[in-house]
């Protein structure tokens, strides 16, 4: 087949009619009903200015830091001694206290 | 010794809640009264840490002037003590004291140690080189180094003094409190705010306006830099005049004369004492550390009973 020249192509182009839009196109471009609101929770996004985001992060960090319960010192139970750990002195030497200076 | 002449026998439970930073700690005190004198003692542990556990003590005196001073470890069934024979000298308020190792008749031993006295063991005691004699006057105090622990470097010291005998009770003195004896060894220092003590006597505690029944008959009379009480099902409350934020204390209330009050959560606590609680005339902030889970853990402790204790420093009570 011989290739068409420019005149023939222009003639064909003037005769061509664009097909009508498919029925589903309108639904895709203009949905009949809006998507359910909760889907936004999974697919939506929020644009936040960087200074605001940083301020929120700092506030959360401060809140976490100062909301920590005070750490009470839990002193380890100290060891004890018993009477059997002591031995009497070899020589009793009572000392009188409370004399006048 | 004729047990029939026993004039007095006083048992004193060891106070385990005393100072952390003091040079020594009072662990026992008491007295024995006769018709001619009154024997006072205060036992101190120096240094106070580690604590001496489960030791009680007391005195038995007869009308011949012989005082048996003893310490008991019921858990290990061990005892120790000494005899002090006290003679009243002609010079007023002057006494001669002769110290010897503890002696006890079998009858006295049964009275002191129970029917199974034979299962008790005395600490092996030296003879102290024979009797030791000292003469003291009114207001003088004798220090007796009794026991040493070579491992911890601690010693147990009795401070004793002799005073006039307790007067028979009559209409003139029926409301007079008996004399007590305290002794503070070591070098003196200037008084500091943290030395101030809280004192409560016969406390009654209300929670949200209702008397806690466990305190209805309390006759407690105690004092300390840190004072604590335990209410059944509510835990322990440690009270202090000093802030101590590092220990978790909060400014939770106030002290006014013989009354203190504080708030923990939704609950309002009021304590009415039989005497002024804080030294000085003014109202004071009250700092409180509450441990709701605390319960007494010592042997045979009654968790349903009201309890009170003291310490010379709040940190001595943390974790105990």
Q: Which runs of chain B of at least 5 residues are low in confidence (pLDDT < 50)? A: 1-22
SSE order of chain B, one letter for each helix or strand: EEEEEEEEHEEEEEEEEEEEEEEE
Helices and strands of chain A, in N-to-C order?
HHHHEEE
Count all strands of chain B and give the number: 23
Beta-sheet strand percentage of chain B? over 45%
Tally of DSSP helical segments of chain A: 4
Straight-line N-to-C gap of chain A = 139 Å
Ranges of chain A with pLDDT <50 over ≥5 residues? none
- Order of strands across the main sheet of chain B: 15-14-21-20-19-22-18-17-23
Query: What quaternary form is this?
Result: heterodimer
What helical percentage do the residues of chain A reach? 25-40%
**Helix content estimate of chain B:** under 10%
| Overall morphology of chain A | rod-shaped
Largest beta sheet of chain A, briefly? none
Chains forming the largest contact: A-B, 29 and 53 residues
Characterise the protein shown here:
The complex is a heterodimer of chains A (101) and B (320). With 101 residues, chain A is mostly helical. Chain A has helices at residues 6-15, 23-29, 39-43, 50-66; strands at 80-81, 87-88, 95-97. Chain A has a domain at 34-66. Helix content of chain A is 39%, strand content 7%. The mean pLDDT of chain A is 79. Chain B contains 1 helix and 23 strands. In chain B, the strands form 4 sheets. A 9-stranded antiparallel sheet of chain B has the order 15-14-21-20-19-22-18-17-23, with no helix packed on it. Chain B is globular, with a radius of gyration of 21 Å. The two termini of chain B are 42 Å apart. The chains are: A mainly alpha (101), B mainly beta (320). Strand 2 (87-88) of chain A pairs antiparallel with strand 11 (141-149) of chain B, so a sheet runs across the interface.
């Amino acid at each position: 087949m011989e290739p068409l020249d420019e005149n023939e192509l222009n003639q064909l182009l003037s005769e061509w009619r664009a097909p009508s839009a498919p029925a589903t196109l309108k639904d895709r471009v203009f949905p009949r009903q809006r998507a359910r609101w909760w889907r936004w929770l999974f697919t939506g996004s929020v644009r936040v200015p960087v200074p605001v985001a940083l301020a929120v992060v700092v506030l959360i960090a401060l809140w976490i830091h100062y909301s920590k319960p005070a750490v009470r010192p839990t002193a380890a139970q100290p060891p004890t001694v018993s009477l059997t750990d002591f031995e009497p002195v070899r020589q009793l030497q009572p000392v009188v206290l409370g004399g006048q200076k | 010794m004729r047990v029939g002449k026993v004039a007095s026998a006083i048992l004193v439970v060891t106070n385990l809640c005393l100072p952390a930073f003091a040079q020594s700690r009072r662990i026992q005190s008491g007295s024995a009264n006769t018709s001619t004198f009154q024997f006072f003692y205060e036992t101190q542990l120096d240094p106070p840490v580690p604590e001496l556990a489960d030791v009680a003590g007391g005195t038995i005196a007869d009308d011949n002037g012989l005082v048996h001073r003893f310490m008991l470890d019921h858990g290990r069934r061990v005892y120790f003590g000494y005899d002090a024979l006290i003679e009243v000298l002609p010079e007023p308020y002057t006494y001669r004291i002769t110290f010897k190792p503890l002696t006890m008749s079998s009858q006295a031993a049964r009275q002191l140690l129970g029917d199974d006295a034979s299962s008790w063991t005395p600490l092996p005691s030296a003879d102290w080189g024979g009797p030791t004699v000292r003469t003291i006057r009114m207001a003088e105090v004798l220090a007796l180094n009794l026991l040493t622990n070579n491992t911890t470097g601690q010693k147990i010291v009795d401070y004793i003094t002799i005073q006039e005998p307790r007067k028979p009770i009559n209409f003139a003195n029926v409301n007079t409190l008996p004399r007590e004896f305290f002794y503070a060894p070591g070098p003196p220092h200037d008084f500091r705010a943290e030395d101030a003590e809280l004192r409560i006597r016969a406390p009654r505690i209300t929670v949200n306006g209702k008397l806690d029944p466990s305190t209805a008959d309390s006759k407690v009379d105690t004092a300390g830099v840190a004072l604590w009480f335990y209410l059944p099902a509510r835990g322990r409350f440690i009270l202090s005049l000093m802030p101590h934020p590092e220990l978790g204390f909060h400014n939770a209330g106030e002290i006014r004369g013989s009354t203190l009050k504080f708030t923990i959560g939704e609950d309002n606590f009021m304590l009415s004492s039989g005497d002024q609680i804080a030294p000085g005339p003014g109202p004071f902030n009250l700092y409180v550390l509450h441990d709701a889970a605390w319960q007494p853990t010592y042997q045979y402790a009654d968790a349903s009973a009201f309890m009170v204790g003291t310490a010379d420093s709040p940190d001595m009570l943390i974790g105990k």
